Amino acid sequence: MKSKLLLTFLGLVAVLVGLPLAAAFEAHVINVTARIENALYVHPQSLQFGTVFPQEHLFSSFFIAFSQSFSETSQTRVGTVEYVIKQKPRPRENMIATLGGPEAARDWCHLNAPADANNPSDPYYTNCYPTMCSALSKHPDNHPTTGPNAHNDVGLPPFHDPETNFATGKIVKFNQSGNTIGNDVSDTWDVDLAVPCFRGKCAQDWADFVHGLNPNAGDPMQYVLPPNLEHETFACDLWVEVTGIR
Amino acid sequence: MKSKVKRQKSKLNMEQDNKWRITKWLERQAGRSLSFFDKVLLWVLLVILIFFTYLSVDANKYRALVRVIEGDGKVGVNPTDEALDFGDLSRGTAAVRRVALENGTPVPMRVIIFKIGDIRTLMKVDQNYFRLAPRQSIKIDFTTYMPASAEIDKVYDGRVYIFKVPFL
């Protein structure tokens, strides 16, 4: 009889202690929250330029639109998506695991740019591809040409600072008034590679080549590559990052 | 009068029988009466059961999906926050969705993430089984890469469960 009473008492104590704790959790007096962010990062397929020669100008493209799930008529909460196209140094495939996975590897390449680009023994070159991000341009499709969403994408010419300069775009499912007149449901971006030259091997018109593609490029010599990187594979990751929804 | 008292007594006995039906069933299975230790163990198991029920109810549950589209370098986006929707991806493209996790409690939490469904093989989580310190905020990246073998027009679907176990 005594043990039964003791057990019942223990049970009651457990319930009395547990209930307020559970209630506190649920009332968010003490809370742990998890929420999906609106931000979305998309990595377009590899654009392969193959073997290239200095001062060549090569063209490629990618296409961005709303997904099928977003395009459903019932989705009326968000009508506009704003995004930027960022350029990030690319880790070497065989070093990704060593550096702690794709994200950690990308961060490593981003934070450990070689102090001296001419030094081939810099650990950056062991872990990451030499970057060609500054030589990539992004040109918008300039569609639609009329209406409220005309020319709503801003491109970026080659020979820029990839850390601070980005192309920006906007896709519009429906306008603020709710109609779809002149909407812009997709963007096609032309990605061009203006191949830089190696120090000591640039043509005489190198400055004209740079300023012809980007009049605001500044000193053309800052885009000249170290000669020891000749015959290397260069790479750059392009990321479409959603920055805002409305 | 006597019969009324008798009826009330039998009703009480029945209630008593019902009340301890589980222990009686256990006693029948064990072939002996339950000891004090057995009963304590039963209570402990009950508390553990309630704890795990709480964890599963409290867990964040998200739908995760991605659709394969034809073509090269094509992506369709859906950045809304109702689901881990990676949108439409052509082969060779990838998308990242981010979940912000905040521990507003004074106790540490062990975060455990489970993925189920078709999408689990395509989706990678950048961190799992980690400890979230008190008052700490963290962002978890879910990356989906569309391989060359993906079936065009197929929707890879699944669910993601984020469990938060206190004091671990």
Provide a descriptive summary of the structure in words.
The complex is a heterodimer of chains A (246) and B (168). Chain A has a domain of 169 residues. Helix content of chain A is 21%, strand content 24%. Chain A has five helices and seven strands. The longest helix of chain A is centred in the N-terminal third of the chain and has 25 residues. The N and C termini of chain A lie far apart (67 Å). Helix content of chain B is 30%, strand content 40%. In chain B, strands 2-3-1-9-5-7 form a six-stranded mixed beta sheet, covered by helices on one side. Chain B has a three-stranded antiparallel beta sheet with strand order 4-8-6, with no helix packed on it. The relative contact order of chain B is 0.18. With 168 residues, chain B is an alpha+beta fold. Chain B is elongated. Classes of the chains: A alpha+beta (246), B alpha+beta (168). Strand 1 of chain A pairs antiparallel with strand 4 of chain B, so a sheet runs across the interface.
